[in-house]
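INPUT
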Amino acid sequence: MFGRLTWDAIPFHEPIPLITSAVVLLAIASLGIWITRNKWWSYLWNEYVTSTDHKKIGIMYIVMALVMLVRGFADAIMMRAQQSLAIGASQGYLPPEHYNQIFSAHGTIMIFFVAMPFIIGFMNFVVPLQLGVRDVAFPTLNNVSFWLNASGALLINLSLFIGEFARTGWLGFPPLSEKAFSPGVGVDYYLVALQISGVGTVLTGVNFVTTILKIRAPGMSYLRMPVFCWTALASNLLIIAAFPVLTVVLAELMLDRYLGFHFFTNDGGGNSMLYMNLIWVWGHPEVYILVLPAFGIYSEVASTFSGKPLFGYRSMVFATLAICLISFMVWLHHFFTMGAGGDINAVFGIASMIIGIPTGVKIYNWLFTMYGGRVRFTVPVHYLIGFMLTFVIGGLTGVLLAIPPVDFVVHNSLFLVAHFHQVIIGGVVFALMAGYTYWFPKAFGFTLDERIGKWIFWCWFIGFHLAFMPLYVLGFWGATRRMQHIPDPTWAPWLHVAFVGAAIIGIGIALTVVQLLYSIKTRDQRRDVTGDPWDGRTLEWLTLSPPPHYNFAVLPDVHGEEAYWVRKQTAIKQDQLIEEPDYQPIEMPLNTPTGVIVAFFAAVCGFALIWYIWWLAILGLIGAFGIFVWYAWRDEHEHIIPVEEVRANARERRRIRMEHLHNLSQST
Amino acid sequence: MSTVSETPAIGLTHGGSEDTGLGQRGPQSKSIVVPYGFWLFVLSDMVLFSALFASYASLVHATDGGPTTAELFDRKLVAVETLALLLSSFVCGLAMITAKRKSMAWTQIWLLATGALGLVFLGIELFEFSKMIGEGAGPQRSAFLSSFFTLVGCHGAHVTAGLLWLGTMMAQIWAKGFRQDIVRRLLCFSVFWHALDIIWVAIFTIVYLIGTLP
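OUTPUT
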């Protein structure tokens, strides 16, 4: 009846997961009671859960990413604690089978359920606003994508309470991840969660490429798009081209595990190197799926806070697309030691170094954007400068690793761990924090506290360097990654420093929560009444904060690059807004529970697959198909916002803008 | 509110530009956006199959002492199978033409024929699979057979999904008539069905023809 699911799956005898489970369940229960007390369920359901508004969906992605960041960080600090305790005679506090689950969960969560949803959240929130339009191409599909991602995250977290997680690292390499060596449910949790969220991500890719190529404000030609939109386009093209490969390789491993196929097994002619190739054909572009939009965020920040147009806009676009292309030609550098031979390794090594060139172009562009500008040292600019310092070093260690003979020496060592954390924290996470601060007022109508924001930055910046610089040293000394026990006591001081660094990052994450609560409490002092708190240059700052559901009462007419900046300067010069346009009623897509129901059935089906409850899996599939047919049968797709409402809102905005304009022209 | 339906609201969804150039005239209409998005989805499906082809190509000789391609495949059977699928695609094209003319009876007939030919294809594939499994050449036998069953089976799964979709479309046209959004959906279905043809041609060539070369 319940497959291999028995009471033994609940970790009654293991204190750490048991206590964690209890605390998390308590937190969820109290959150539920709090929402019920305040009667917020219907608000949440109508305004967020079933919303097809790209802004709301973006916010939901980012909330999920922040929650999962706490989970992923808890894993990180546990690993650092174990490695700084389990030295020499001491065995630390984590047994190997638990430690292995933790490093696997840490990597899986941080990439798939923190970095990805954070980036996709920004794309959701920002891209339609910057393009000057009202929503993405497929609003309902967008909601479905989010909830599929969320059910993947749910399954990963479920593994903490019911059963176990994979012990095979964040990419689950066979033959270790095959049934013969990992018979438990851990790898199945990993596979199923990633398959479900992967489907959501592919749909996001389709949605955003269509949006950016087909739905833009009048006059917004390709070379007038803000750089963030360009990077989002490149990132989503990579999603369409790379994620199906992930789906295939994980499906093949599932077939091996569930039906006894021989893709990657040691017997039957299977070839585990096929897995390495396929997973990295996805895995390397994945790095750029994350970092390209991050580059886009830095570009927006650099130009806005330097008060200058972005230096070398066209070279930035070209560099973005060059990276997009080359990122598909370097995957083999993840396993130079496979033994493909000198020629092949050389080709991939050189390709890996070439990718540094367009990235270097970008660094110079940001530097020249700031050069001669009137730079305001806000929180996002702190992250921008911190990123440039950190990322250049990370890039250089990357070039070192791209030299095959060097890679043979430091392969699979802590040197590698330090390298990829340097580019991902220094490149992606700093951008996420910068973007979070930068766009927060647009989403909620008030800014985040600047002072605490700077503390958070310093925690991340100092904490990162303390945590990872020692790992470079240890890597050179031959420390391999993923060690549950450290045999050499001379490594102790470096590991202790690394732990302190991780703890400082932890303070930064805690301060992020403090900053949010404090900013909400004191929001009246920091209201963004004008909708343009940073003196912005792109169209998202044209509308109010938070924007109405339809974003723009009338789609803006774009003349030249920096659509909003040109318009603002003209208005200041003439001391008047553009002539009041003729308002029209607006059609907007209706809310729909399709996404959350489909995701519910997907999660049920996934859970049933993990525990071999076949009847439930079939039921889940039928349910998902049923809801699609039900959705396809509907007759009402849109509701119409009456022209009176549009006009009233737009006039209010014009009044605020006029006031702002007078203040501006008086001050100049 | 009659004026509402007459004045095209420059919304996201309707009455957008039909301009197929570089999109400088504002958001494009749904009749362009929806098929465009669906083409991108088909593209991602093609990438999916390309990864399966890559797996097949690298495992085709990993027979582990078991049967090889030449011993297993029957060109004549596959020829009939291919004919059924290509014909199904052709008939699907006829259905699209009659749908454009809003002829309910003919559209339903052609769609039914499309589905029937798809079923013939699927039946032959299942017959081939069960015969192979019966001979001890199932997917568990060797890495080659694992990749063969996965590649061809994935195409078969797509055909099955297409048949489910086809059935739903027939019911929708019957219940709701040739509404704009339904016809658009039918267009997406036909794109999907033709794309499966293209993939089958590749399977036919790479798996069956090359596999049975003397």
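end of record. Chain A is about 70% helix and 0% strand.
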